[in-house]
């Protein structure tokens, strides 16, 4: 009876020191949980934003280059253009595929290897008159666009 | 009680504590926003965009223009050789290597087939058989 009264009827709470320790402990546990659960906010999301932005740049640049090659390519001859790409964007290697879709709707697709981020760019429908195909991986030292009239 | 430090027993700062909490939450929100925003900027990979589109078109156009004005000399080997050397020097000063030669000439129809070659290093363009029609083409 004396114990029950002591626990439930004690309205003086804990001492300042114990209270401080309890509050600090609760805050630390809270922080640890936040750190674990917020990885997606602090790491995954920004890296996805970086990848999307970088892939858009790369996709635009490659589609522009393909269209440029189409504009100046000889009726009878060859045209080869070598270029480099960033090996990684947002900490991830990626693949550039120029054979997505057919005809007017053909597109250049840039995607990371895990498939989390995929960006597609049109090539102004030039695949309707010339056949565009091929793909490359960002890890390669050099990349090449090759045109052959025959 | 008189022996205890009044600073420790002072409980009148609840609003200060609360405002400290609000500022802390605000800082966390700002840091998340900043974290998102600073990643958004990117730089286009300029190495991909470098392409001598204008040089290729200009070289091709110049050769066509030259052929139109020199139909009678298209079969003159020495003249062609001299012209090729001059063109190579001209483009060479801009870091571009070019070459041209005459495959065949039809003096009656005033047409010719040429080969043109132009490269700036990364990009190489080879016109295996460039048809020039000095009568029907408009330059």
Number of strands of chain A: 6
**Oligomerization category of the chains in this entry:** heterodimer
Low-confidence stretches of chain B: none
Please count the helical segments of chain B: 5
Mean pLDDT of chain B: 84
- Euclidean distance between termini CA atoms of chain A: 101 Å
Number of strands of chain B: 3
Mean pLDDT reading of chain A: 86
Tally of contiguous helical segments of chain A: 3
Shape of chain B: rod-shaped
The portion of residues forming beta strands of chain B comes to 15-25%
How would you spell out the order of helices and strands of chain A?
HHHEEEEEE
Beta-strand proportion of chain A = 15-25%
Strand order of the largest sheet of chain B: 1-2-3
SS content category of chain B:
alpha+beta
Q: What is the terminal-to-terminal distance of chain B?
A: 106 Å
Biggest interface: A-B, 36 and 31 residues
**Could you list the spans of chain A in which at least 5 consecutive residues all have pLDDT below 50?**
none
Keywords:
heterodimer, A: 150 residues, alpha+beta, 2 domains, 23% strand, rod-shaped, B: 139 residues, three-stranded antiparallel beta sheet, 5 helices, transmembrane helix (chain B), transmembrane (chain B)
What's the short version?
The complex is a heterodimer of chains A (150) and B (139). Chain A has 150 residues and is of the alpha+beta class. Chain A contains 3 helices and 6 strands; from the N terminus they run αααββββββ.
Protein described:
The complex is a heterodimer of chains A (150) and B (139). Chain A has 150 residues and is an alpha+beta fold. Chain A has two domains: 36 residues; 95 residues, no CATH class. In chain A, 42% of the residues lie in helices and 23% in strands. Chain A is built from three helices and six strands, in the order H-H-H-E-E-E-E-E-E. In chain A, the strands form two sheets. In chain A, strands 4-3-2-5 form a four-stranded antiparallel beta sheet, covered by helices on one side. A two-stranded antiparallel sheet of chain A has the order 1-6. In chain A, a hairpin with a 6-residue loop joins strand 2 and strand 3. The N and C termini of chain A lie far apart (101 Å). The model of chain A has no long low-confidence stretch (mean pLDDT 86). Chain B is an alpha+beta fold and 139 residues long. Chain B has two domains: 35 residues; 86 residues. Chain B has five helices and three strands. Chain B has a three-stranded antiparallel beta sheet with strand order 1-2-3, with helices on one face. In chain B, strand 1 and strand 2 form a beta hairpin. The model of chain B has no long low-confidence stretch (mean pLDDT 84). The chains are: A alpha+beta (150), B alpha+beta (139). At the A-B interface, helix 3 and strand 1 of A face helix 2, helix 3, helix 4 and strand 3 of B. Chain B: Keywords: Membrane, Transmembrane, Transmembrane helix. Chain A: InterPro entries: DUF7266.
């Amino acid at each position: 009876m004396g114990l029950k009264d002591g626990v439930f009827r004690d309205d003086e709470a804990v001492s300042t020191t114990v209270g401080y320790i309890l509050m600090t402990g609760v805050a630390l546990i809270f922080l640890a949980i936040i750190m674990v659960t917020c990885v997606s906010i602090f790491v995954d999301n920004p890296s996805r934003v970086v990848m999307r932005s970088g892939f858009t740049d790369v996709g635009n640049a490659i589609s522009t280059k393909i269209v440029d090659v189409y504009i100046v390519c000889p009726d009878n001859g060859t045209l080869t253009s070598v270029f480099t790409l960033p090996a990684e964007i947002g900490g991830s290697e990626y693949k550039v595929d120029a054979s997505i879709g057919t005809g007017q709707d053909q597109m250049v697709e840039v995607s990371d290897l895990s498939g989390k981020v995929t960006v597609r760019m049109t090539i102004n429908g030039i695949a309707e008159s010339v056949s565009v195909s091929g793909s490359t991986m960002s890890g390669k030292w050099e990349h090449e666009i090759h045109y052959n009239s025959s | 009680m008189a022996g205890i430090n009044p600073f420790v027993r002072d409980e009148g700062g609840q609003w200060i504590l609360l405002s400290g909490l609000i500022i802390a939450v605000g800082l966390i929100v700002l840091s998340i926003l900043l974290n998102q925003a600073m990643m958004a900027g990117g730089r286009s990979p300029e190495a991909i965009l470098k392409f001598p589109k204008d040089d290729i078109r200009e070289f091709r156009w110049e050769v066509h223009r030259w052929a139109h004005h020199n139909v009678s000399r298209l079969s003159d080997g020495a003249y062609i050789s001299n012209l090729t050397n001059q063109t190579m020097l001209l483009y060479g000063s801009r870091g571009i290597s070019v070459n041209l030669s005459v495959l065949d000439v039809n003096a009656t129809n005033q047409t010719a087939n040429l080969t043109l070659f132009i490269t700036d290093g990364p990009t190489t363009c080879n016109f295996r058989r460039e048809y020039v029609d000095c009568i029907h083409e408009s330059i």
